[in-house]
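User: Just a sanity check before I run the rest of the batch. Below are the structure tokens for the first item. I only need the designed sequence back.
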């Protein structure tokens, strides 16, 4: 699986080394050269994902102009130290994709790489396909699993969300996805796009919270050349990029009030102007918005416009936190480890005891936290089976189910271990783990440790009941149709 390649031309050794590390972390192949040897680089310039050129290069203009020439359709990004002046001759200013300040933060860089993917996807369909292919290949697993397939879970909540996606996908209704960070709002937005008639057009995400207020307008609506300092050339905004497709306004709750007014107008009139232009552009874009904030509170605090809220809230989808759907955890763990394997990001598996602990933990960072933990475990314990003792300290305070039967561990372990999981749809992996998450309907061929299974289920359901009742034991006991004293005993047993 070839990673997309970036050429970094920079005479500043420290900067280029640091930048290379970041780009490699983002899963790009990087070739770093300086201005004396970029010509001998083995890269085919027009086949690259992008070329980044550092400031402070001797005969700067001549070299940049040469690189821009050779680049063909490959975007050239100029890298400049914060505060340093970096004069670029206006002759090729229009060919520069973006000026990027160093040091750069991950969100800003991610924005630029996304923008390269998306806006170069707009230029011609051949390149669009190539870029879509390369970005899909980069996230290897996406090739096998569409967003809809990636929306794992058998909990009632996820079943309902899939149903909602089905109901609303084909209409152009605005959808508002609400839920804590890391619960899967973006996956749901992508699943919606993939299920809609717009799926052959672009899904364009923008994180309204990560872009400074003054840049957000130009990001959304584009700008004309010279509209503001740094606007070296005219540029499309995300609304234009998403034409015919879907625009995903992530973290809409963080959008400044001034922008909210402008967005409201686009939603009402389906038209806007680029910054620095008075030409009205009409758009055909489906909007999906998401936020982790409680918009009712934001409205009360005068941080969110009520009229915009009603415009967005045509079809709300609420995503519950992971702790309220712990029965999805085994399946998620399996999915995440499988994805990691497919995309060569490591391999690891977990004992059922670890899974039982996962089902009791609170997961404040939701699925993102779970995925990060799994990646971390894969680095620390590659190809191992992680037991509770190997987990970080915060997981050590939970009740581990009775390990009376080693035999059952070896059976269920085998099923959790992604080494042995065949990823093909028809592999018939109706294993213990899936059964755990689906609620067991049929006894698996290999049998099951019933006691352990029931312990895991019981712990998970008790935790859910407690969460639903804000920790009030008496109410939770009612939900579980058991006496309060019995529940208290169980809480002690599960160390809750
Ligand atoms: N239902 C799910 N099945 C599989 N992976 C999921 C699911 N929901 C979320 N994820 C993964 O969890 C992480 C966070 O999801 P994301 O959609 O970015 O959350 P949010 O936008 O709510 O912060 C991503 O890595 C995503 O792939
Ligand atoms: Mg998100």
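Assistant: Here's the designed sequence for the first item:
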């Amino acid at each position: 699986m070839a990673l997309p390649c970036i050429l970094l031309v920079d005479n500043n050794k420290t900067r280029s080394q640091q930048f290379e590390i970041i780009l490699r972390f983002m899963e790009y192949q990087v070739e770093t050269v300086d201005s004396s040897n970029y010509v001998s680089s083995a890269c085919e310039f027009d086949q690259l994902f992008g070329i980044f050129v550092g400031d402070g290069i001797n005969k700067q203009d001549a070299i940049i102009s040469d690189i821009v020439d050779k680049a063909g359709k490959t975007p050239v990004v100029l890298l400049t130290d914060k505060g340093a002046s970096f004069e670029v001759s206006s002759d090729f200013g229009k060919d520069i994709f973006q000026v990027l300040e160093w040091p750069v933060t991950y969100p800003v860089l991610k924005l630029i790489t996304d923008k390269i993917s998306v806006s170069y996807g707009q230029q011609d369909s051949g390149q669009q396909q190539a870029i879509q292919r390369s970005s899909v290949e980069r996230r290897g697993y996406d090739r096998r699993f569409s967003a809809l397939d990636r929306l794992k879970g058998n909990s009632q909540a996820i079943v309902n969300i899939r149903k909602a996606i089905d109901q609303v996908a084909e209409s152009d209704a605005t959808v508002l996805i609400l839920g804590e960070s890391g619960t899967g709002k973006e996956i749901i937005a992508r699943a919606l796009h993939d299920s809609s008639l717009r799926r052959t057009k672009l899904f364009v995400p923008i994180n309204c919270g990560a872009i400074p207020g003054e840049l957000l307008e130009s990001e959304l609506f584009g700008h004309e050349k010279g509209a503001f300092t740094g606007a070296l050339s005219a540029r499309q905004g995300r609304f234009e990029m998403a034409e015919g497709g879907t625009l995903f306004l992530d973290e809409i709750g963080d959008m400044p009030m001034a922008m909210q007014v402008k967005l409201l107008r686009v939603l009402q009139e389906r038209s806007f102007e680029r910054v620095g232009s008075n030409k009205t552009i009409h758009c055909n874009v489906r909007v999906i918005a998401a936020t982790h904030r409680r918009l009712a509170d934001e409205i009360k605090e005068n941080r969110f416009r009520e009229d915009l809220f009603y415009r967005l809230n045509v079809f709300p989808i609420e995503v519950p936190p992971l702790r309220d759907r712990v029965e999805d955890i085994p399946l998620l763990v399996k999915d995440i480890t499988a994805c990691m394997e497919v995309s060569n990001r490591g391999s690891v598996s977990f004992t059922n005891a670890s899974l039982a602990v996962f089902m009791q933990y609170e997961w404040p960072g939701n699925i993102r936290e779970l995925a990060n933990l799994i990646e971390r475990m894969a680095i620390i314990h590659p190809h191992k089976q992680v037991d509770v003792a190997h987990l970080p300290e915060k997981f050590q305070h939970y009740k581990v189910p009775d390990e009376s039967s080693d035999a059952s561990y070896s059976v269920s372990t085998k099923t959790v271990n992604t080494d042995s999981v065949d990823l093909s749809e028809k592999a018939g992996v109706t294993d213990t783990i899936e059964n755990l998450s689906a609620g067991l309907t049929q006894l698996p061929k290999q049998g099951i440790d019933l006691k352990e299974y029931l312990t895991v289920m019981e712990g998970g359901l008790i935790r859910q009941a407690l969460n639903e009742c804000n920790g009030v034991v008496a109410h939770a006991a009612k939900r579980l149709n058991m006496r309060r004293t019995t529940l208290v005993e169980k809480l002690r047993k599960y160390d809750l």
